[in-house]
Amino acid sequence: MTDAPLNPDFLIATEQGLRALFPATHDLALRKCQPRLDRHARDFVARSPFVCIGTQTPDGRADVSPRGDPCGFVQVLDDRTLLIPDRPGNNRLDTLSNLIANPAIGLLFMVPGFDDTLRINGRAQVTRDPDVLARLAVNGRLPGVAIVVSVTEVFLHCAKAFRRSDLWNPERRQNRREMPSLVHMILDQTGGAPEDPSALAKLDSDLEEAYRQSMY
């Protein structure tokens, strides 16, 4: 799995061996897992403009994809069902094709300014039902398909990761210009970016225009 030298004496290969290294979890951490969306989970989803979607390929490779829209873009249909619009993207279709092959799905909802997060696990289907898509329209534009999540597990996740990262602190914002643009990096990775700064600037401008024209 890695080219780095690892001492096999210290590899953890069983869950029993793993759990022996840690204290037992507390009772509340176990009891907080709920089988449905209560009022707190519903409120959290309604406030969230951003969710990460975890899926798996047919051969078990993991994948995580971000989704974002105005707050409440993920709709709660009932206490066991969520609707997620699929907006225009790069058409790799990783998440959607994974779900068709393996319906297991994991969701991590974030709310700007909240250090806690909401985790939802379940099973998902992909639909093009016009009645479902109509519920998810923005500015009169419908998503091509939607993800329908049947919820099996819901729980709030503590704030430690966000406290450690200080993610929402404006003083910790980094200067995007300290790294090359997205287009520049991808071209470097796939064969070489043009050396002419004006050519790169044109590519960056074209990408921004594509964003404006294809958000929905």
Automatic annotation (TrEMBL):
<feature type="domain" description="Pyridoxamine 5'-phosphate oxidase N-terminal">
    <location>
        <begin position="38"/>
        <end position="158"/>
    </location>
</feature>
<dbReference type="InterPro" id="IPR024029">
    <property type="entry name" value="Pyridox_Oxase_FMN-dep"/>
</dbReference>
<dbReference type="InterPro" id="IPR011576">
    <property type="entry name" value="Pyridox_Oxase_N"/>
</dbReference>
<protein>
    <submittedName>
        <fullName>Pyridoxamine 5'-phosphate oxidase family protein</fullName>
    </submittedName>
</protein>
<dbReference type="Pfam" id="PF01243">
    <property type="entry name" value="PNPOx_N"/>
</dbReference>
<dbReference type="InterPro" id="IPR012349">
    <property type="entry name" value="Split_barrel_FMN-bd"/>
</dbReference>
